[in-house]
Amino acid sequence: MCLIMGKMPGRRRRKYPAAAWAYYSGAVLEGEDCFVAYNMHWLKHTFALPALPKGKKWYQIASTEDGILKKAELLKNQRSVELDERTVMMLAGR
Q1: 47 within 8 A of 11, measured Cβ to Cβ
Q2: 10 Å Cβ neighbour count for 24?
Q3: Burial class (CB in 10 A: 0-12, 13-18, 19+), 29
Q4: Residue 43 has pLDDT above 50, yes or no
Q5: How confident is the model at residue 1 (pLDDT cuts 50, 70, 90)?
Q6: Considering 16, 20, 40, 77, which has the largest number of Cβ atoms within 10 A of its Cβ?
Q7: How many helices (H) and strands (E) does the chain have?
Q8: What is the Cα–Cα distance from 2 to 12, expressed in whole angstroms?
Q9: What is the arithmetic mean of pLDDT over 42-51?
């Protein structure tokens, strides 16, 4: 499992970022990829999604608004996701 983390660019330096993300690659163990977007800002933010290997798609599996979903929902836009203010969303690449 490989973890890559980042934060959204901002004009001012903050001790803690208002929007950040974490990408967990399942390539080593041939499992699912996982992307967690954290928007702690009081405004909506759009997060670019990592490209997945051929044949895989991004699915929403949980968020602070919807809780843990009983059935994963295929994202209409596979390149980016917009999060409302103060929202965390978890995606799985399947």
Answers
A1: no
A2: 17
A3: exposed
A4: yes
A5: very low
A6: 20
A7: 0, 8
A8: 30
A9: 90
Calculate the alpha carbon distances from 36 to 1, 5, 13, 71 in Å: 15, 10, 22, 18
- Give ∠ CA 91-36-23 in degrees, rounded to 5: 95
CA distance 26 to 71: 20
In sequence order, the 6+-apart residues with CB closer than 8 A to the CB of 86 are: 39, 40, 41, 42, 64
Q: How many Cα neighbours within 13 Å face the side chain of 80?
A: 7
Residue pair 93/26 in contact (Cβ under 8 Å)? The answer is yes
